[in-house]
């Protein structure tokens, strides 16, 4: 067995029950194209190949990428040796599902890359740090920029928790399966995604401050104007960014750009 490379965040998962659970969460059928990020030793790859029409595995580690095709002779497997953060999603088929056991340090960037891509997967199933999974599915009162940006593009839900002891070597924290069923963000017709996130990022720029202060500072407008905007939207200026839903942010953005 190849030795893991700590600087790449490699932790091998071999438990067949957990690997099958990940595949189950992806609802894979024989017509599906599956894109797998970080196939590693190929333990999940073998299950994906059994269930899907084809698998495209993107592996950053050149040693693993060279070894993987030989493990599955005669199977419809394409292995691409590239950094997923540099990979052009336009090179993928127009319909695919994404499945990955992600290194913790790239989780947020991968979520952002694929949720905002013009060629988005229909579904994503990711094994991520448990704390990150909980942040993504948070409800108003515990929202974050990551939660808003994820829930704008997908209905998110949780699968099983995977204790650290199931990995070799074990990481310091537990993991959890995170499921994205992609949806149309349904923005107001006159608001772009860039404009929406300008508002959202301003709100979270000073997370512990109330909205009247965080939006005022982040958007460089006076507090009285912010208070009027929020009250017209039906949102208290005393709320904090973490209290708002995705729909609240859409309403704020619509009012803000319509009043300019």
Summarize the structure.
The chain is of the alpha/beta class and 260 residues long. It contains 10 helices and 9 strands. Helix content is 38%, strand content 19%.
**What is the CA-CA span between the terminal residues?**
61 Å
CA-based shape? elongated
User: Roughly how many Å is the radius of gyration?
Assistant: 21 Å
Low-confidence stretches: 5-9
Major β-sheet strand ordering: 4-3-2-5-6-9-7
The overall number of domains is 2
- Name of the top-level CATH class of the largest domain: Alpha Beta
Please provide the ordered H/E string of secondary-structure elements: EHEHEHEEHEHHEEEHHHH
CATH topology of the largest domain: Rossmann fold
What would the average pLDDT be, to the nearest integer? 93
The largest sheet is:
7 strands, mixed
CATH superfamily of the largest domain: Vaccinia Virus protein VP39
Structural class: alpha/beta
CATH architecture of the largest domain: 3-Layer(aba) Sandwich
Approximately what portion of the residues adopt beta-strand conformation?
15-25%
Structure report:
The structure is a single chain. The protein is α/β, with parallel strands linked by helices. The protein folds into 2 domains: 6-182, Rossmann fold, CATH 3.40.50; 193-258, Helicase, Ruva Protein, domain 3 (Orthogonal Bundle), CATH 1.10.8.100. Helix content is 38%, strand content 19%. It contains 10 helices and 9 strands. It has helices at residues 16-25, 43-51, 62-71, 107-116, 130-136, 145-153, 193-204, 211-219, 223-233, 246-258, and strands at 12-13, 33-37, 54-59, 77-81, 97-101, 123-129, 154-162, 167-168, 175-182. Strands 4-3-2-5-6-9-7 form a 7-stranded mixed beta sheet. It has a two-stranded antiparallel sheet with strand order 1-8. Helix 3 (62-71) links the parallel strand 3 (54-59) and strand 4. Helix 7 crosses helix 10 (246-258). The model is unreliable at 5-9 (pLDDT under 50).
């Amino acid at each position: 067995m190849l030795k893991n490379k700590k600087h790449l965040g490699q932790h091998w998962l071999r438990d067949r029950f957990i690997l099958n659970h990940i595949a189950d969460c992806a609802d894979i059928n024989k017509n599906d194209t599956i894109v797998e990020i970080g196939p590693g030793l190929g333990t999940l790859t073998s299950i994906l190949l059994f269930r899907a029409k084809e698998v495209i595995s993107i592996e950053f580690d050149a040693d693993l990428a060279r070894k993987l095709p030989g493990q599955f002779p005669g199977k419809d497997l394409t292995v691409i040796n590239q950094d997923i953060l540099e990979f052009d999603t336009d090179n993928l088929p127009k319909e695919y599902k994404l499945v990955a056991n992600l290194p913790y340090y790239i989780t947020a960037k991968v979520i952002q890359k694929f949720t905002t891509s013009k060629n988005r997967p229909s579904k994503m199933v990711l094994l991520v740090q448990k704390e990150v999974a909980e942040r993504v599915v948070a409800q108003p009162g515990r929202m974050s920029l990551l939660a808003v940006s994820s829930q704008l593009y997908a209905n998110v839900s949780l699968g099983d928790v995977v204790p650290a002891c199931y990995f070799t070597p074990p990481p310091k924290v537990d993991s959890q399966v995170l499921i994205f069923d992609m949806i149309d963000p349904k923005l107001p017709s006159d608001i772009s995604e860039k404009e929406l996130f300008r508002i959202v990022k301003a709100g979270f720029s000073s997370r512990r401050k109330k909205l009247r202060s965080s939006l005022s500072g982040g958007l460089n407008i006076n507090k009285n104007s912010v208070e009027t905007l929020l009250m017209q939207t039906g949102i208290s200026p005393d709320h904090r960014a973490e209290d708002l839903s995705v729909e609240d942010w859409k309403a704020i953005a619509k009012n803000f750009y319509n009043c300019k």
